[in-house]
Amino acid sequence: LMAQVTFAQSDIPRHEMSTGYSFLLPNRDGWIASFSERVNARIWIKAEAGGNYRKRDLPDGTHPDFIHSILAGPEFKLSKGSKLVPWVHILVGITMNNYAEQDLGTSSVSVFTSSQKTEVRFGFQPGGGVDYYLTPRLGVRFGADYRRAASGYTGNNFFRMQTGVVVRFGR
Predict the structure, then answer these.
(1) pLDDT in tens, 6-29
(2) Are the C-beta atoms of residues 11 and 145 closer than 8 Å to each other?
(3) What share of the chain is helix, strand, coil (3-state, %, to 5)?
């Protein structure tokens, strides 16, 4: 019986890598990369990293504003062995937001300056999407996520869309 279960899962590759473009609202372009390992035909464990960037105009000039994330958790494939594979995931981890904050000068004349700040927050990110396989091992991915980046009693909400390629390998 155990041999039968093992052989029944062998037609699905064991590992999956994905990379592509992501758009994080409000107005941040970026990248996303993930690695997943199959637990069984429908359950995978996923690790994901990403970065989204924009320029912010302040009175003293243009400053970088970016968010990086490192998240992991379960991913559920809603279909197995077909060309179209819907999926959902629930990821948790950290987000790092680096941004410029405007400071008010201390002289009698108001002078605007800014300083770079970095916040590390807990990230919670449920999402989903669909993979369309062009070959049994190479496909295109489309997805969307909701992200809550929280620290203490405060937090930020983000919405992210992604597109890219997905490659399956290994047995």
Answers:
(1) 444 457 789 999 999 999 998 899
(2) no
(3) 5, 75, 20
